[in-house]
Design goal:
The protein is an all-alpha fold and about 80 residues long. Helices cover about 45% and strands about 0% of the residues. The chain is extended, with a radius of gyration of 17 Å.
Amino acid sequence: MSRLKAHRSDLKATDKQIGGKHYKGKIQPIELIVSHNLDFIDGNIVKYAIRNKKGENLKEKYDKIIHYCELAKELKCGWIYYRWV
């Protein structure tokens, strides 16, 4: 039976990213989210606003932000928002 070796890294978790570089910047979104005590929904709004994901067009990016804003209004404020398309 083989044993797994412990993985050790000199990098802090906030200094590395798994799977791309679309969150790399002056501050990691998680640091901003935690420092402002944001909840899941508000944190995702920040995350999508900050990131620059390769291949993601601006319409898709802003649609995701709008969706989380609609979720916040519905779930946190009790408002129901109808979008007429």
